[in-house]
Write a structure and sequence with these properties.
Layout: E1 5-13, E2 17-20, H1 21-27, H2 32-39, E3 43-46, H3 53-68, E4 77-81, H4 92-100, E5 106-110, H5 116-129, E6 135-143, H6 153-156, E7 161-170, H7 175-178, E8 181-189, E9 197-198, E10 221-222, H8 224-246, E11 255-258, H9 263-273, H10 284-287, H11 294-304, E12 313-320, E13 324-331
Parallel strand pairs: 4-5, 4-6, 11-12
Antiparallel strand pairs: 1-7, 2-3, 6-7, 8-13, 9-10, 12-13
Bound molecules: oxa(dethia)-CoA.
The site of oxa(dethia)-CoA (UT7) has 20 residues, from α2, α6, α8 and β12.
Length: 332
C-alpha cells in the first residue's frame, strides 16, 4: 500500500418532512412511550413524493465536495451504499453521476444494507491506497419509507430517510507520517442469516405480481429480536478487529459513531467495548434507523457540531441485513 486514504470532506441531507411518534400513534397500535423506551426514537424524516435516493445524494455530495475543496471533475469513482436505489437499472451511482455532471467515473451501488457506508468506505480506502484512484465519493443513502410496511408496527416505527457522504482522497500532506487518515477498516457478513431481515418478493426468485402484492413481501420484514442479538455481538467484534488493525485501543478512541438502529443496541455495544458513554455520538432520536445513511449522517453532524475535530480518532461501526457488518477507525 503506497498511499494513505483520508476523509477530506463530509456532508449530509435529510428531507424536511418529520414523522413523529404521535403521528404513528394515529396510524397503528403503538405509543410514544413504547417507541421511546424500546428504541430511543422520537421522530424520523420522510421524503417528499418527488424526492428519490439520488436527490439526497446530490445534496449531501455537494456539501462534502465543498468541504473537501474538490470539484466534481476530480471524482474518479462513485460508490453508493443503498437498498433503496432509484431504479434496479441503472445504478443510483449512475444517476448521481449524471445529475452532478461528473465527466468520467467508475459507478457502482452496493447492497450491504445498514453496513453499506462502511463497506463503501473500505472499498474507497482500497482504491485510494492502491493508487487506482485519487478521489472517491462514498454515499450511504436511503428512502426507507418507500419499502416500509406502515401496517407492521414491529418495523414501521423504526425507519427513516436520509443520506450522508464522504470524499475519500489520497493524502498528499504527510498523513501517513503523522498517522492521520483512514487507519483501518473491517467488513464482514453471514449470508446464512439473510432471511432474518429481508424483502422476499420483488426480485428474480419471486417477482412481484398482482396476486402476491397483498402479502407485502416486497416491503421490509425483520425478526427484530434475533437481529438485535447479532447486531451487538458482531459490531463489538468488528470494532475490536478494526482497532487491532489500526493499532489503537478503546482508550485511544475520542468518538464512537455507531449505526443508529436502537438506543439499547448502542448501550449494549458501549458496555461490551467498555467504552465511555460520553464518547458516543447519538442522533437516533431525530432520524430513527436510516440504514446505510445512519453512520455518515452522524459523522457529518458530529464534525459540523465541532464534536469531531482535527487530531481526533473516530470509530465507526454498523450492522445490517445480509447479515453485513463493518467498522472503521479514522484519525482526522
Ligand atoms: O438496522 C438493521 C439492524 N436492525 C436492528 O438492529 C433492529 C434490531 N431490533 C430491535 O431494535 C428491536 O428488536 C425492536 C425495536 C425491533 C423490537 O424491540 P424488542 O424489545 O425486541 O421487542 P419485541 O419484538 O420483543 O416485542 C415486544 C412486545 C411484543 O408484544 P408481546 O408479544 O410481548 O405482547 C410486540 O408485539 O412489543 C410489541 N411491539 C410493539 N408494541 C407497541 C412491537 N412493536 C411495537 C410497537 N408498539 N411499535
Amino acid at each position: 500500500m503506497n498511499h494513505r486514504a483520508i476523509i477530506s470532506g463530509t456532508g449530509h441531507y435529510t428531507p424536511e418532512h418529520v414523522l413523529t411518534n404521535a403521528d404513528l400513534e394515529r396510524m397503528i397500535d403503538t405509543s410514544d412511550e413504547w417507541i421511546v423506551t424500546r428504541t430511543g426514537i422520537h421522530e424520523r424524516r420522510i421524503r417528499s413524493k418527488d424526492e428519490a435516493t439520488s436527490d439526497f445524494i446530490v445534496a449531501a455530495a455537494r456539501c462534502a465536495l465543498e468541504q473537501a475543496g474538490k470539484t466534481t471533475a476530480e471524482i474518479d469513482a462513485i460508490i453508493v451504499g443503498t437498498v433503496t436505489p432509484d431504479y434496479k437499472l441503472p445504478s443510483t451511482a449512475s444517476v448521481v453521476q449524471r445529475k452532478l455532471d461528473i465527466p468520467k467515473a467508475a459507478i457502482v451501488d452496493i447492497a450491504a444494507a445498514c453496513a453499506g457506508f462502511i463497506y463503501g468506505l473500505a472499498m474507497g480506502q482500497s482504491f485510494v491506497e492502491s493508487g487506482m484512484y485519487r478521489n472517491v465519493l462514498v454515499a450511504g443513502a436511503e428512502t426507507l419509507s418507500s419499502i416500509t410496511n406502515y401496517q407492521d408496527r414491529n418495523t414501521c416505527v423504526l425507519f427513516g430517510d436520509g443520506c450522508g457522504c464522504a470524499v475519500v482522497t489520497r493524502g498528499e500532506n504527510g498523513e501517513k507520517e503523522n498517522g492521520t487518515g483512514i487507519l483501518a477498516a473491517h467488513i464482514s457478513g453471514d449470508g446464512r442469516l439473510g432471511d432474518l431481515l429481508n424483502m422476499p418478493i420483488g426480485g428474480s426468485k419471486v417477482p412481484l405480481t398482482p396476486e402476491n402484492y397483498e402479502q407485502r413481501g416486497h416491503l421490509l420484514h425483520m425478526d427484530g429480536r434475533e437481529v438485535f442479538k447479532y447486531a451487538v455481538r458482531e459490531m463489538a467484534d468488528s470494532c475490536v478487529q478494526a482497532m487491532e488493525k489500526a493499532g489503537v485501543g478503546i482508550e485511544d478512541i475520542d468518538m464512537i459513531i455507531p449505526h443508529q438502529a436502537n438506543i439499547r443496541i448502542i448501550e449494549a455495544l458501549v458496555k461490551k467495548l467498555k467504552a465511555n458513554r460520553d464518547k458516543v455520538f447519538i442522533n437516533i432520536q431525530n432520524y430513527g434507523n436510516t440504514s446505510a445513511a445512519s453512520v455518515p449522517i452522524a459523522l457529518d453532524e458530529a464534525r459540523r457540531a465541532g464534536k469531531v475535530t482535527k487530531g481526533m480518532t473516530v470509530l465507526m461501526t454498523a450492522f445490517g441485513g445480509g447479515f453485513t457488518w463493518g467498522s472503521a477507525v479514522v484519525r482526522f
